[in-house]
Design brief:
The chain is mainly β. The chain has a domain of 115 residues: TolB, C-terminal domain (Neuraminidase, 6 Propeller). The protein has 3 helices and 30 strands. This is Lipoprotein.
């Protein structure tokens, strides 16, 4: 049987198995281990019921196939694939890291807590150590890969904000997403004012990009962001002939939204920020909550405006211009967009949190950003985070 027919046969088997198997599958059987965990082009999807729990699923965007593997996770979680494992970051109220093994049907092979109420945000793996960013803390925690016990930390005490409109600065630095470059770990610190008199969490202080030496467990450098409140994942990509770290800053967002930030790029060769935003909030018309860049000529952004209209926009990173709108959801419709991923094959995946028909929209960036599935593909629960199942760092 040739590879294409073999893959089609596998998908056909998957379809019949889903019809005959209960939706709640915690431990896939041997047949699923061997054939149905995922295809080579599959992505990982964190789903949630936004109440009692969530599930980790795998989804194949070329055939719109959701595989039957369904691993219980927290209702508030994000995922990352690194070192041949899926890491589920179970955030506030579970506060743990869950390690899934793709070779064993993505079953959980390790889980460890990071401290009640610490609200973990991301994880990086280096040698025998796990580095975990904690939103409700002033340190970067370090854990043993062997048994998940805490073995150290990098203190961010000196990076706490020193100003609050209430006169009482808080002690958390709101550390969030991370990315590795060699032995350096770059981590974003939002530094929000939790004690602001408005009751919201505005960015009244500068935000930082901190470079950590993962061998010595110490700070190498601190870079002040040109815009505040970085809120997206970090994409490492070659732009203008050199590798850059790219992320979106939202400034004042949501109920205190202002046009005050955008997508920025950090040049790794000289550790400096690109002089221009790749996509500005003035051009997008709102806060850029997530993005994916294909190359210098094409990027995609999930935008929320002050009237709570949600859009997926196409833009040109080289010039910063908006070049189209793929999807628009008015603010008076109870649908949100959560999860944005551009696969290496050029498929743009957009998670829709429509509670009557949640799922994933698939666009093809190789065919003029055409929508391939007008009805979003179901992934069992509501998609919350979508990520590549490949070692990207």
């Amino acid at each position: 049987m040739n590879p294409e027919l073999g893959f089609r046969f596998t998908l056909l088997c998957a379809f019949f198995l889903v019809q005959c198997t209960q939706l709640e599958i915690e431990k896939p059987n041997l047949f699923q281990f061997l054939f149905l965990s995922a295809a080579p082009s599959s992505v990982g999807v964190v789903t949630s019921d936004f109440a009692s729990g969530g599930r980790f699923k795998t989804f194949e965007p070329n055939s719109f196939t959701t595989f039957p593997t369904s691993i219980p996770i927290h209702s508030d979680a994000v995922g990352r694939y690194t070192n041949d494992r899926v890491f589920i970051v179970n955030r506030l109220n579970r506060d743990s890291i869950q390690v899934l093994n793709p070779q064993l049907g993505f079953t959980t092979e390790q889980e460890f807590g990071v401290g009640q109420g610490k609200n973990p945000q991301d994880i990086s793996v280096w040698n025998d150590k796990y580095f975990v960013s904690l939103y409700n803390s002033d340190e970067l925690a370090i854990y043993s890969r062997t048994n998940g016990t805490k073995i150290g930390a990098v203190s961010f005490t000196s990076l706490r904000e020193t100003f609050s409109t209430s006169g009482i600065p808080d002690s958390s630095v709101e550390s969030s997403y991370m990315v590795q470059e060699g032995s350096s770990l770059f981590i974003l610190l939002q530094r929000l004012d939790r004690n602001d008199v408005s009751g919201f969490l505005p960015p009244n202080s500068d935000s930082y990009l901190v470079e950590i030496d993962m061998d010595l467990n110490q700070i190498r450098a601190v870079y002040t962001l040109p815009y505040r409140n970085p809120s997206s994942k970090i994409q490492k990509i070659n732009l203008f002939g050199e590798p850059h770290l790219v992320f979106s800053c939202v400034g004042r967002v949501g109920f205190i939204s202002q046009i005050d930030a955008g997508i920025i790029a950090f040049r790794l060769s000289n550790r400096q920020f690109h002089p221009n935003r790749l996509f500005a909030e003035e051009t997008a018309g709102g806060d850029i909550l997530a993005f994916q860049i294909k190359n210098e000529e094409l990027g995609f952004a999930a935008v929320l405006d002050s009237g709570f209209t949600k859009t997926i926009q196409a833009f040109r990173p080289r010039t910063g211009e908006r070049i189209g709108t793929l999807l628009e959801i008015p603010g008076n419709i109870g649908i949100s967009l959560s999860g944005l991923l551009l696969t290496k094959e050029g498929k743009l995946l957009v998670g829709s949190t429509d509670f009557t028909r949640p799922g994933i929209y698939v666009y093809d960036s190789n065919l003029g950003n055409v929508l391939l599935n007008p009805i979003p593909s179901s992934v069992e629960l509501t998609p919350f985070d979508i990520f590549q199942l490949q070692n990207l760092q």
